[in-house]
Amino acid sequence: MTAAPYNYNYIFKYIIIGDMGVGKSCLLHQFTEKKFMANCPHTIGVEFGTRIIEVDDKKIKLQIWDTAGQERFRAVTRSYYRGAAGALMVYDITRRSTYNHLSSWLTDTRNLTNPSTVIFLIGNKSDLESTREVTYEEAKEFADENGLMFLEASAMTGQNVEEAFLETARKIYQNIQEGRLDLNASESGVQHRPSQPSRPSLSNEAANAKDQCSC
Amino acid sequence: MDAHTPGYYYPPKLRIGQQDLKCRQGCGFYGNTQFDGLCSKCFRERNDKQRKKLKACEDEAAQSSGASAAIGTVERKSPQHLLSLGRSKSKKETEEARNAHTMPKKKFTVPAVLQKTLKSKLPAVAQQQPARVPSATENQFVLQLRQLRIPDEAKRKLKSEIQHLDYEICKYINSHSNLNIDELSELVQNAYTRFADIVHNDARFEIATNEDRDSAIDFFEKVVMTQNHNLLFSPYFTTDEECDVQVQKRIRQLSWITAKHLDCSIDEVNAEARDLVYNAISELVGIDSYYSPQEKLLCTVRCCRHIFELLKRATGGPASADDFLPALIFVVLKANPVRLHSNINFVNRFTNASRVMSGEGGYYFTNLCSAITFIETLNAESLSLGAEEFATLMSGEQAYSTPWESALLACESLHLISENMKCMEQLQKRNSTISTGIQDFERELIEFQREVTEKVDAAIAKAPLNLLPIKTPVHLISQARAHLTLEVATGHYQTNLLQSSLSTAGKAKALSTPDDSLLHPSHTLALKDTSINSMGRLSPLQQTAQQDQLFASPIFNYTPFDAVSLLEDSSENGDMPLLSTEFQGGLTNINYDFDLSDQSGENSAADESKLNLDEFDPLAQPNLVEANNLELGTTRGSLIDSEVPVSNVLLPSPLKPEVTNYRGFSNFNIPSISCNTGDSSSLSQDTNEAKAGVDSLK
C-alpha cells in the first residue's frame, strides 16, 4: 500500500470574533484567498476558510471559523468557541464603539475557550488613517493589560494580515512544543496528523485525528 | 427496527433509488414492502422454507423470549440475538403489531422475526445463516467494507469492533433501569476513541495509509450509527420528542418573520433566490432522512452551501458570517424541519466529537445549532420590534402577509401582487433616477450655454471687431496706374483674347477680324458673351453690384476639376502652357464679361477702367489685409501659405478686360486663366481678395 502522507501535520481551529462590519470576513478572505473581497467566486463556500501554512517546517492547516458579530446573535454563537486553538478578536480603528465592545468579546472568549487558546487582537482598516478613532497606543495598552497579541492590519491592502494569522499559529505551535496544549483533548482545537503513518510513535498523538475530507 | 427488518422500520426516505425498489433477493424483479421487500416469487419460496423450519424454531423462540435475564452467558453470536431482543422490547409491542399487519398469522410472525434477528448483520455471521436475506443497507455496508483499503485482518477487527459496540449499546439500554443519554453518549464516544486508537496503533492497520485509517473510522461510526439509529435517535428516555414538538410549534408561530426582520439579504420575491432557498430547505428537511451523523452533517453542508450561493448572488460578493447566520435562521424558519431537536441531539451525542468542532461540516452544524437556539430564544428585541407588536404577531392577532408565505401557500395571485409591487417599486426608483438625470442635464445645458456666452463675450470684449472703411493711399493709386500701363506692353492678355476669339469660330467671331477684336475688345467680348449665354445662370442682366459679379462667377460655383493638377499648373507655369490657348482665352472671357456684355455697349472703356481702378485697385490689398488682420486671420494665413507672389493680388478685375492695356498684366501669373480652368487655389485667392474688397466696400 502506498503511503500517501497528509500534506499537513496539524490542524488548528481559529475563530474570528468582533462586532458586525469590522471586516472579519474580509480579513479571512484576504488571508485565505490573498485578496480583498473583489468579485471572488467563492469564499467559505468551497473549502471553507482554510489555508495551509508552514511553521518550523511543519505544515499546519488553519481552519478559520467566521462568526456573526451582531449583538443579538451573541448569546447563540457561543458554540463556535468550542475547541478553538486561536481566537482573532477584531475591531475597527475607525469606529470606537467596536473597540469599546472588546472587553465583552474578551470575556466570552476567556469563558468559552480553554486557557491555552491564543487570543490575537487585530485593529482592522489601518488604511483609513484619516478617519481613525482609536489610537494604536490605546489599543496596544489594552492588549498588554490583557495579555493579548496585537497588530493593526488592513484587509483592504493586506497589510499585517498574514502576520496576524501566522503569529497566532506560531504561538499555538510554541504552546504545543512546551506541552501546554493537550493534543488529545478534543477541546484543544489542535489535531495532529502524523505525516509518516508507518511510525507508531507519532500515531499516539493522532488518536484524536479525524477525517476532514468527508466534508 | 434496523437493517435486518427493513420492510417495516425504515424511516421514510426522500429519495428512493432504483435498487431499493428491486427484490432484495437480487432476482431482478421489483419487490414489495408487503412481501418484506421481496418479489412475490422469492417471498413465497422463503415462506415455504420458514414454514418447514417453523417447528424446529419454536423451541428456540420460546427459549429466547424468556431469556432476557440470562443474556450474559451467550457466546459468539449472542450479541446480535440479544440486541434484537432488546430492541423488540424497547419498541414494546408495536413491532409485533406491525408484523401482524403484514404477516397473516401472528403466531407465525414472532418466530420468523426472531429467526431473522438471529442472523448477524455482518457477512461473517450472515454466512452462517444462508437462509437470511440481507437488507439493501447491509449489502451496501458489505460492499463498502470490501472497498476499504485495509488488510483483511484489519477488516475482521473492524467487524468485531462494530459488533462489540452494538452489543455495548444494547446492553446499556437493556440493563439500566434509569437510562441517561449522556452516559450512552459517553459510551459511544469512548468507543470511537478506542477504535481510533486501535486503527492508529494496532499492527493489523500498520500498512494502511492515514486516509484509509480515517475511512475505516468513518465506516465504523457510520455502520454503528445506522444500525442503532432506532435506539439512539430520539430515545424514549429523553425529552427530544417534546422538544421537537415545541420547536415545531414555535416556528409555526414565527411564520410571520420575513427576511427584513432578520436583516438578511434574501430577496423573497426573486425567482432565482427562491429556488436556492427551496434547495436549502429541501436539504435541511432531508437531514431527517439519513441515519448516520456523517450523512446528516453532509446534508447540512449542502444546505448551507445553497445559502452561501444565495448570499453571493444577493450581495454580489462573497458572503460573510454576519449575513450567513440570519439567512440560515430564515431558512430554518421557513423549512420547519421535522424532528429538528432529535436530529441535532443525535449528531451532537453520537458523532465523533471532533467532527462537530472542526471542519466544514462542524462549522455549518454549529451555525445550525446557533440558528435553532436563536429561534427558541428570540424575542421582540432581537427582531427589533416593539414588545406589543411582537406579542400580537406571535398570538396571531395581527395578520402578517409576506411574499414568502404567499408563495408557500401557492396563492398565485397574492404572490403575483407582491411580485408586481416589488417590480413597481423598482420601476418607480428607475423613473425617479431618470427624471433627476433629466433635470441635471437641463441644468448642465443652461450652465454650458451661459459659459459659452460668457466666453464669447469676453473674447469679443478683448478684441472688438471693427470693420474699417477701405482706404486706398493716394500714392498707391498712382503706382498702380503706372504698373498697369507698364504691363500693357507685354500684351499677353490681349493675345489670349485674340486667340480665343479666333479659334472659337463662333458666328460672332467670324464677323470680327483679329484687328477688330484687338481694337475693340469690349465689343468682341460682348459678342462672345452672347454666344456663351447658353450657360444660363450667368445672366447678362446681372448688372447690379460688382460683388455680385465677383461671387457669381460661374467657376466659383462649380467644383474644381482637379485640384491637384491645377495646383501644379498654377505653381509651375505662369503661362499655363498645358492648357490650350483657345480654351484659356474663351474661358477668360466667360468669367469677366457678362456684365460688360450689357454695359460695354454703352459705357466707354475709359470710364470703366477708371471705375475699376478706384474700387478694386489691387495695390490697396495689402493695406486692407493688414487692417482686417484680426478678422481675416485664417484667410490671410491661407494667402501667405500659398506663396503666391504679391502680383497675384493684381487680379484682373471683372471689369478689367475692357481695358485694352490689361493684356500684359498676367505676365507673371495668369489668374484669369487659372480661374477659367477651375484652378481652385488661385481662385480662392481671388475670392479672398475679392471678399476683402467687398468687405472694405461695405
TrEMBL record, chain A:
PROSITE patterns: RAB, RAS, RHO. InterPro entries: P-loop_NTPase, Rab14, Rab_GTPases_membrane_traffic, Small_GTP-bd, Small_GTPase. This is Ras-related protein Rab-14. GO terms for biological process: defense response to bacterium; endocytic recycling; Golgi to endosome transport; phagosome maturation; protein transport. Belongs to the small GTPase superfamily. Rab family. The lineage of its organism: Eukaryota, Metazoa, Ecdysozoa, Arthropoda, Hexapoda. Keywords: Acetylation, Cytoplasmic vesicle, Endosome, Golgi apparatus, GTP-binding, Hydrolase, Lipoprotein, Membrane, Methylation, Nucleotide-binding, Prenylation, Protein transport, Transport. PANTHER family: DRAB11-RELATED. Its EC number is 3.6.5.2. Its main location: cytoplasm. NCBIfam families: small_GTP (TIGR00231). It comes from Drosophila busckii (Fruit fly).
UniProtKB/TrEMBL annotation, chain B:
It comes from Drosophila busckii (Fruit fly). The lineage of its organism: Eukaryota, Metazoa, Ecdysozoa, Arthropoda, Hexapoda. Keywords: Coiled coil, Metal-binding, Zinc, Zinc-finger. Residues 241-384 form the VPS9 domain. Gene3D superfamilies: 1.10.246.120, 1.20.5.4770, VPS9 domain. GO terms for biological process: vesicle-mediated transport. This is Rabex-5. Residues 17-51 form the A20-type domain. Residues 676-687 have a biased composition (Polar residues).
